[in-house]
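From: lab user (bench 3)
To: helpdesk
Subject: output format question, protein + adenosine-5'-diphosphate

Hello, I'm new to running complex predictions and I'm not sure whether the block I got back is the full result or only part of it. Here's what I submitted:
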Amino acid sequence: MLARKHLTPRLEARLRACTTRNGWTLKAALRSGAEQPDSRIGIYAGDSESYATFAPLFDPIIQELAEGASRGHRSDFSLEGLPLEDLDPTGEYVLSTRIRVGRNLARYAFPPAIHAEDRRRLEAEVVDALAGLPEGLSGVYRPLGALSEDEREELKARHCLFSAEDRFLESAGALRDWPEGRGIFTSASQRLLVWVNEEDALRVISMQPGGDLARAFLRLRGALAYLDARLDFAWDPARGYHTSCPTNLGTAMRASVHVRLPCLSSRPGFEARCKALGLAVRGLHGEHSAPEDSVYDLSNEHRLGVSERDIYARLHSGVRRLIELEQTLRGTRRQRRRARGG
Ligand code: ADP
Ligand code: ARG
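Helpdesk reply: Thanks, we reran it on our side. This is the complete output you should expect:
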């Protein structure tokens, strides 16, 4: 666990008495890691100030997460000069594409520390901003508590809804008063989603059937340009966008595809091959889930030390490469079967 690794007794003594304006302490920041010993990171920020107040602990963790990538964040959503074509024009491999970013508001505590009243105020501010989204992105906001069981199940089946079943978030305090103050915005096309007050104040998500990564990216870029002009997002030039969990700092972007690679994924070293391409492997239902029917969730491994443009480029080239390898393996298997007369 990174938090444990970097918290020396000396550092603990130095930070023990520190508190942010929202009352976030070292103990609160480390609670999730303490209660969930299988945590990989084991620390959460309760607000923007946490990253400065507890910098001697957060910064080495952030550096290790960025794996030596240059520190500092500069947003770049341009796609000029990058390949724009569909990742999988045949539709054989890529089932769907999703890009999300996390955002928090500078004036409020983050979900692990926010109080009920502020959570409601924040929700109202965000809902107000979402109500003005331009044509093509506009839609409706529904509080989580107002969704029927059937509606929730339907949204979950389409990978559109978050759940309250994350024990790491629970221990961090981010699920208090559930489902109060939480909700989901869905655009008329169902392709822009905004989760409000889950792990971060906002998760802005662009969904796309198939492999049209450029279209998903441009939709997200449009929505963020609009929201950025209306909401004061927590941010600093070294750490990028501030998120509850340090794994999301920087771009706070995870761009992923659901891709079926039966030949490649059944060979040893599949995850290492993805990692070498800068891609992380998750299961079909996201973090901590398993693949199903050889369908994997592949996404950018790094969010900090890279720009949004870099993430796009890496996912595009990495997934193209994996599909080529899958095609080669399929061809080889077919040839072998033919040679055996099968
Ligand atoms: P996050 O992406 O917000 O870090 P998860 O990994 O838990 O969190 O994913 C959230 C949801 O998004 C899950 O239901 C997951 O299956 C879904 N998802 C992720 N990538 C895709 C994709 N490319 N297509 C469809 N759904 C996806
Ligand atoms: N706190 C958990 C851990 O340390 C989750 C880390 C990354 N996941 C996330 N959803 N932020 O392992």
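A quick orientation on your result: The pocket of adenosine-5'-diphosphate (ligand 1) is lined by residues 96-98, 100, 159, 203, 254, 256-258, 282, 284-287, 297 (CB under 6 Å). Let us know if anything else is unclear.
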